[in-house]
Amino acid sequence: MDQFWENEYIQIAANYSVVILCLVVFLAIFEMVTKYKNWEEIKKGNVAVAMATGGKILGVANIFRCTIEQNNSLLSMIGWGIYGFLLLVVGYFIFEFLTPKFKIDEEIQNDNRAVGLISLVISIGLSIVIGAGIT
User: Fold this and answer.
1) What angle do CA 104, 110, 114 make, to 5 degrees?
2) In this structure, what DSSP letter does residue 125 have?
3) Nearest alpha carbon to residue 88 among 103, 66, 68, 110
4) What is the pLDDT of residues 17-57, one digit of tens each?
5) What is the pTM of this model?
6) 92 Cβ contact list (under 8 Å, min separation 6)
7) Which are the contacts of 113, defined by CB distance < 8 A and separation ≥ 6?
8) Rounded CA separation 25/19 (Å)
């Protein structure tokens, strides 16, 4: 049985499956945190929401890329991935706090693409920093 889990293809499939599951859960959490419904807004053609959501997806994927590179077990990969995700959520709240002149969620919901782009860049940028801390 140990040989089964040591197989490189099995490890890749296991990592892939766990990351997809975590990504779905994390996107559901982001959906609860924001005041708009991501997928409904994207379906309506809201590019700002698509950019912000894309940044979150890429950010979480980048964090997990780093955890996969640095950890040999699924449990430690998941643990560090959850920790990185929590830091990414904290970064989202800091972004909201640092812009007191307008509400980030409202601007993104109103398809303010400049705010959506900044949200995307912040998510990716923070994930790079978080990933570097994990390694």
Assistant:
1) 60
2) H
3) 66
4) 999 999 999 999 999 988 899 999 999 999 999 999 999 99
5) 0.89
6) 30, 33, 122, 123
7) 47, 48, 51
8) 10
